[in-house]
Amino acid sequence: VFLKGPSLYAFKGLAGRFAPIGVHIAMLLIMAGGTLSAVGSYRGSVTVPQGLNFVVGDVMNPTGFLSNPTRFFNTEVHVNKFYMDYYDSGE
After folding, report:
1. How far is it, in rounded angstroms, from Cα 47 to Cα 65?
2. What ranges do the domains of the chain cover?
3. How far is CA 31 from the centre of its chain?
4. From first to last of its 91 residues, what are the pLDDT tens digits of the chain?
5. 77-80 contacts: CB < 8 A, separation 24 or more?
6. Are 42 and 57 in contact (CB under 8 A)?
């Protein structure tokens, strides 16, 4: 887009020429994020009765070689009360 005198001019189809580059960059970012998530995350599950505690680091397992424990793994969680509400329809 440029000005020439009192008129405004633009190149037709310029955005269409750069759109594939943007799409490919987005796809590379998505693939990189998925790869980092696969090799640098933690997975875990725990069943804790009401009134008991658990330490986060005891139930989380690394999923890859980039998984580094942090100071939050020493966090102790206490479950005061757990309940589920349902709609009248049973959902």
Report:
1. 27
2. 11-78
3. 13
4. 778 888 888 877 777 888 999 999 999 999 999 999 888 888 899 999 999 999 998 888 888 888 888 888 889 999 998 888 999 998 8
5. 77/48, 77/53, 78/52, 78/53, 79/48, 79/49, 79/50, 79/51, 79/52, 79/53, 80/50, 80/51
6. no
